[in-house]
User: Fold this.
Amino acid sequence: MTARSLKPWLFVSILLNVFLIGGVGGGLYHWMANARPAEVVVNQHGLRQAMVKLPPERRRELRQLLRRNRDDSQPLIMAGREARLGVIRQLEAPSLDREALVAELAKAREADMALRALVDGTLAQFAGTLPQDERQKLVETLYMRGQAKAQAKSAGIKPRS
Assistant:
């Protein structure tokens, strides 16, 4: 190839490189100008959401209370898991034994209710240590969602925003 035939290719190559460098530079500038810390959006419910709304020292207290109850809750968690596995076995069986299925469902329900009662007792113990404004935050995060907020407003209860 001669120098004369390479000139158009060199011009196209330089033009393409300038375009690519400009695109990468512009993208980098846009990314840096709009850079925000990454926020992990997790749809949290119940106690996890309540813990996020509480001050760090209160969050630590609640976490410690729940950890103390972990040893008491493990047998209940295992009983519920075993009962749900029993439900799965009953449903997968070639012939359905309705009484056994109902018994396994009842076991799972009882284990879940006992676990819920344990957590509720811990929550009641924790709530007894909170001042009024923090208890209000707890109510809003645990019990006032969607329609409940609208009903509370119509009943004259003002949830804080």
Observations:
- Residues 46-152 form one domain.
- DSSP finds seven helices and no strands in the chain.
